Amino acid sequence: MTVIALPIAEQTDRRPVQSCRLGDCASGQTATVVELRCGESEACRLRALGLVEGSTVNIVDQRHCMLLDVRGARLALSHAITNGITVVPSRG
Amino acid sequence: MTGPVVTASASHDTTGAAPLVAPPVRARVALIGNPNTGKSTLFNALTGMRVRVGNFPGVTVERVEGTLKGAGGATITILDLPGCYSLSPASPDEEIALAALHGTHDAARPDAVLVVADATQLERNLFLVSQVLELGLPVLVALNQVDAAADLGITVDAVELIHALGVPVIPTVATRGEGLDVLRKALLRATTHEVPTRRFALRPEVAEALAPLERHLVATQRVAPAVAVLDALRLLAVPAPESWYPQPRELAPELDEARIRVASTGANPRSIEAELRYAWIGTVVARAVVRRDGMRRTTSDRIDAVALHRLWGPVLFLAIMALLFQSIFSWAAPMQDALEAGVGAIGDVVGSLLPPGDLRDLLVRGVIGGVGSVVVFLPQICILFLAIGFLEDSGYMARAAFLMDRLMRRVGLHGRSFIPMLSGYACAVPAIMATRTIEESRDRLATMMVVPLMSCSARLPIYTLLIGAFVPSVPIVGGVVDLQGVTMLGMYLLGTVTALAVAAIFRRTLLRGPVRPMILELPPYRLPHWRTLAATVWSRAGLFLRRAGTVILACSIVLWALATYPRTAPAPGMSEAQAQELQLERSALGRVGHAMEPLVAPLGYDWKIGVSIAASFAAREVFVSTMGTIYGVGEADETSEALRDRLRGEVDADTGRPRYTTLVAVGLMVFYVYALMCMSTIAVTVREAGGGRVGWRWAAIQFGYMLGLAWGMAFLVYQGGRLLGFGG
Predict the structure, then answer these.
(1) With contact defined as beta carbons under 8 Å apart, do B209 and B261 qualify?
(2) Is the preceding omega at residue B566 within 30 degrees of 0, hence cis?
(3) What local confidence, expressed as pLDDT, does residue B416 receive?
(4) In a mutagenesis test of the B interface, which of A32, A52, A65, A67 is the best target, namely the one with the most B β-carbons within 10 Å?
(5) d(C-alpha B443, C-alpha B506), whole Å
(6) Chain B residues touching A49 at Cβ < 8 A
(7) What DSSP line would sit under A15-64, residue for residue?
(8) Rg of the Cα atoms in chain A
(9) What does DSSP say about strands B139-144 and B169-172: parallel, antiparallel, or unpaired?
């Protein structure tokens, strides 16, 4: 189990150059969440589900919507949500 | 909001002369956990069938309480809270759980909290645990599904977890009863456990930025100082503060200022709570969880490769739905026949024991006939809830919602609305109850409002009677289908299409709001536990019989009385049928029919149909039996040739032309597609829409719009048809 490194302190360097939208990632990729931009209640729900800034997600499937592995649980998110999430893909 | 901790345990007698035997423990323990953690199974295993189902006041969420008895009269009342991912409410369910834990919805705050954590997804589950630990209440953790975790190669060290959390952790397998004895013992002592105390160490500048909000919460919002930091952090993240804070107007600007101050330190005020908690959870998991590597693709993933496949997913879904329908319509039939025969036999026995007269008539036709006509739907209800419970507990329901989401979203509903709408073809009563699986209250209400438009099984007798009498059996499309069958299908389609359209209208008017984007957890597939399923079916069947049955009983008696009084003596030489017709015409119900004639005349109906419509306000299937009574053909059912002949032969006294035409019949069917004539549905809507005044308001809206739609569409069919020259 990986202990998640927490970027609580510095919000300013959260958008590195290689970041992209979660919706643009491919199946099998792993990515680190940088920023959540969606409705407040959706963001609140996503964070409670473990999809918090700094956490790692695995893209299990990417067809008509996105299926993610977040801390061992499977989450299905619509594109409206995944397009508002900025991530840094770590490997393809 | 956080009051003093009430310890119901009476074991601490400090007055000197301590009694030899401590008085029995009486305590209330709240049960909380993420969805799909086996919480219901655990609840059922702990409480058996000693369960009381009610509603949280003013809201649509059901409140379930059970009791656990210990030695020496100890009683632990367990309050089963709705499944929650967190105490930062993102759904009405979660707000209710939080309110119950704070004792705001209910006078008493629980004395302790039992959190169910799923060992297979401990990291996610610990988020809720970490929040519960800070409520200022004694906490117990049931680490459930340790067997499933072991299968996945996950080992959780319970002792490490106890050290990390500072509260008792009891590993359990609720489905097999493992660990439950230890859990029961711990529950009986729950109130004597120490209240966990721990704080997050915030960076000094963040702590400073948060301090004014904390002071405000303590001074103005009655938050206990011990939990002020955590409540402040939580409030930064939630979309809106909960309604129970005493000074909500003052809280909002305080929160805005706190967010600005926290943001100025470089931290994100919306995510700081989640980041802190998951950072802490990371350390706990590192200590307590050992996970075999290379476990990426699980069995559930392999099933989902088919179940969520672009092509095979919908095919599998349709096959499962077809099976569901088949089970509701066909498998219930023998049981329904048996129940019908049983009701008939009871009626015969009661009838033979009593002398002819009003009392016998009331009991046999009013009470037994009326209530019996509802009880026969019990097998359908049981099968439907068994099937829905199976789909839900196995994990497939989340996949069905996933597959249907795109279609339902177009009319402003959520994927989860599909299952209740489908169930509506069988009966609107369980279908409305099934809307509970929808999280968002506006989605849920919109679904509830349109479910009765799906043609239920009680409309079938009416369609069958009228189609049989007035629609010719003509083969069409080269003999593949019959005009009668197409008409029947048309009625079902009309209801379905209208339901989707009306849902879209509701979501753009009374229940306006954005359609929430899909965030759906797909739980691992599991074999449902028979005991949990049985408990669900048992409680649903009980609710159906108690609530719908009492309403139907009252209505049956009232209708019987209206049709029976005032008594009219038959003229000499009248046949029994003629006497019955005369009695009905002169009865209170007959007068209602005559009074209604101006209302139904534009639809092409006379007073007799008016009476039948009036009589069927309680239950639509009464229409057929009332028509049978009016036309004096005795015990009529929808296949009764005698009744069909009478209807076809009825002549308008003024014009000399047939009274009922195909146009009138089609209009009448359209009327019944739309009209909400079912007391049970109204009663269930009242209850499920929130009970009390709120519930009645929604039930009135539902009944009103459906009646308006029924009249308007029947008017359009009849008058439009006449204009187009279809006769009438």
Answers:
(1) yes
(2) yes
(3) 77
(4) A52
(5) 10
(6) 85, 124, 519, 521
(7) --TT-EEGGGPPTT-EEEEEEE-S-HHHHHHHHHTT--TT-EEEEEEESS
(8) 12
(9) parallel
Select from B458, B403, B453, B423 the least CA-distant residue to B622. B458
CA atoms within a 13 Å half-sphere pointing along the CA-CB vector of B604: 29
Q: Model confidence over B285-343: pLDDT tens digits?
A: 999 999 876 556 788 888 998 998 888 999 998 888 778 767 766 777 788 788 878 88
Give the pairing type, strands A30-36 and A20-21.
unpaired
What is the three-state SS of B293-335?
CCCCCCHHHHHHHHHCCCCHHHHHHHHHHHHHHHHHHHHHHHH
Please, are residues B524 and B300 in contact by the beta-carbon 8 Å criterion? yes
Task: Check if A13 contacts B (Cβ < 8 Å).
Answer: no
User: Which amino acid is residue B440, in one-letter code?
Assistant: E
Class of domain B26-192: alpha beta
Q: Which of B163, B124, B118 is nearest to B142 (CA)?
A: B118
| CA-to-CA dists, residue B182 to B142, B163, B189, B450, B624, angstroms | 10, 18, 11, 47, 59
Burial B344-363 (b: 16+ CB within 10 A, else e): eeebeeeeeeeeeeeebbbb
Distance CA B274, CA B449 (A): 37
- How many other CB atoms are there within 10 angstroms of residue B592's CB atom? 17
Distance CA B184, CA B375 (A): 38
Whether the CB-CB separation of B544 and B396 falls below 8 Å is answered with no
What is residue B34's three-state secondary structure? coil
- Between CA B186 and CA A69, with CA B287 as vertex, the angle to 5 degrees is 95
Task: Catalogue all structural domains in chain A, each as residue range(s) with its CATH number.
Answer: 18-91 (2.30.30.90)
Domain spans of chain B, in order of start: 26-192, 204-273, 547-723
Q: Which amino acid is at B685?
A: T
In terms of Cα–Cα distance, which of B93, B90, B104 is closest to B39? Answer: B93
pLDDT per position as a tens digit, B396-441: 988 988 888 878 888 888 887 887 887 787 778 878 877 876 777 8
Q: What is the CA radius of gyration of chain B?
A: 30
Among B543, B545, B534, which residue's Cα sits nearest to residue B375?
B545
pLDDT(B626) > 80: no
CB contact residues (below 8 A), chain B span 199-218, against chain A: 203
Residue A19 and residue A37 in contact, taking contact as beta carbons nearer than 8 Å: no
For A3, which of B124, B267, B282 is closest by C-beta distance?
B282
Query: What pairs with residue B289 in β-bridges?
Result: B156
